Amino acid sequence: MIFPSRDFKVLSGFSSDLEARGVLCSPEPGTPQGRAMLTFMASDSEEEVCDERTSLMSAESPPPRCCQEARQGLEDGENAAQWRSQDSEEDLDDADRYVCSGVPGQPLGLEEELTLKYGAKHVIMLFVPVTLCMIVVVATIKSVRFYTEKNGQLIYTPFTEDTPSVGQRLLNSVLNTLIMISVIVAMTIFLVVLYKYRCYKFIHGWLIMSSLMLLFLFTYIYLGEVLKTYNVAMDYPTLFLTVWNFGAVGMVCIHWKGPLVLQQAYLIMISALMALVFIKYLPEWSAWVILGAISVYDLVAVLCPKGPLRMLVETAQERNEPIFPALIYSSAMVWTVGMAKLDPSSQGALQLPYDPEMEEDSYDSFGEPSYPEVFEPPLPGSPEGELEEEEERGVKLGLGDFIFYSVLVGKAAATGSGDWNTTLACFVAILIGLCLTLLLLAVFKKALPALPISITFGLIFYFSTDNLVRPFMDTLASHQLYI
Amino acid sequence: MTAAVFFGCAFIAFGPALALYIFTIATEPLRVIFLIIGKASEGLKSINPDETAPSMRLLAYVSGLGFGIMSGVFAFVNTLSDSLGPGTVGIHGDSPQFFLNSAFMTLVIILLHVFWGIIFFDGCEKKKWSALLVVLLTHLLVSALTFISPHYGINLVSTYIIMVLMGIWAFFVAGGSCRSLKFCLLCQDKDFLLFNQRSR
């Protein structure tokens, strides 16, 4: 199916190639795009090692070097980190929080406007899944007791927070954070190493294992707890059938082909499951400090020249090779118009927004890295020769971003008074941060981390709402005073 | 304190706001962003450089709605969630219509914010300081009226009267007129008819 996308210029929007978890990239029309790397996160549960979600980042070819390198570095770092130990969940963050901008140095004016205009559309395309994920997490937290009960901690946070003094507790949470972050950094570096030495099969296998664990084990636990909460009995054969179908279809959708909406739904669900695991097993203060530290690390790793993520991006760019199927949420499809030879692949592209072959093929015609050429937008709606390719790229956001956004909102819903005002304030804060991040992406057109702004706003809103606004609004509501 | 109370009050308070959102905002991504970001829209305004006037009104409407929804939600959502739990309303002698009253009050506050937003923005645009002052004073008046909370009758009725007045004022400020209203109601509005016949 080919859509002549009348208003869609290739320049706007976000490149589907670039994303890693948390990486939003604006598409660069005509920039050959590399493949994304998978980042994998392993999370630990009390019983066993959990796998972490991976995010796919596609690197773009040389011209937007900064973007791509950062992205690649991000991905690689995350992947390496994950496969190495089974424990780092933080890798997600690394990969995730990249926001890549598409084309640097575009002439302003019309393109800028279009960028902003379509940027708005893509912002909304991201609002919906982020909102859905947060809704699932908050609904579960508020109804299923299991995820708010303290039942041990991950091995990455060995220090307990049941200490007699506040200072000790603070110290323990900082130490927990340091351990987590160092695990993440180590995994990232391992990922870079793995990618550099081309251990693709290893990466691929690890990715599959991680998805298996998430789709089957965590789903089983989740389903069990939900059934317990609502006191619904389910016999084992039915349970087995349900979990098997859910997991198998999920594996197929995520790693192979499937309808886009189903893919998106599965990605949202597994992000929510991971976020719930974090909410359950991270002690309170540690969780907040970790969120802050992850944002800082993300910022540093993406923007510093020596960051592992940047190195990853560089490597992938040098090789200009496709990356493994990503665990990146993709909100739209890629299709091409007017390229006869690409027709069959563009059909596939509808199903696989980030199918390596598809994307690569579709960019073949854009082989030239020179932006001005590619950027000459063909007349909208006028199918011309083969150079006329209109692609709609969706926005892609790494799953780690989903996870950490949901962790923040879920923690806000779970802790203390269980106040709805706080939860809603954090939710709005994250959406504002996401919006601003995308705006910055459109303005700067280079790789930007996607976590810092949202998490910062979220933390500020959480603490101020919980401590200042909540008592005030409670009193007002109980006396029915309206301001 | 049943599900019926919960859903009833929820829809009373947020139904019109949700309807406004779905029918006027949800289809346009830019408007959604306005809603989230509120007044920080200078950059977004650059997208429509040739239509400043309508976009300002649109911005006024959307930000009024956004403020209204946030204020209504913050005021009412904790009460709503309490209404799902166990309890007896007014067991200590308070009014048993606590939830209903809160719901109606929330509704009127949301609508008032929408109208105030439109009037306020227009007042700022045209430098009509009297409009700004009136908006401010009516807001204070409505809040002060809630202080007499046990006497729901006076409180609610006067607030609704103020809302209707503000609504009429906002309608004229936004460019409506009796004629356009008549056309709209009698389905003689050309644009509306064209819109309906678009698919043919």
TrEMBL record, chain B:
InterPro entries linked: Aph-1 (IPR009294)
Transmembrane region(s): 59-78, 98-119, 131-148, 154-174
Keyword annotations from UniProtKB, A to Z: Membrane, Notch signaling pathway, Transmembrane, Transmembrane helix
Protein's UniProt keywords contain Membrane: yes
Protein's GO biological process: Notch signaling pathway; protein processing
UniProt membrane topology term: Multi-pass membrane protein
Its biological purpose: Potential subunit of the gamma-secretase complex, an endoprotease complex that catalyzes the intramembrane cleavage of integral proteins such as Notch receptors.
Family: Belongs to the APH-1 family.
Protein name: Gamma-secretase subunit APH-1
Gene: APH1B
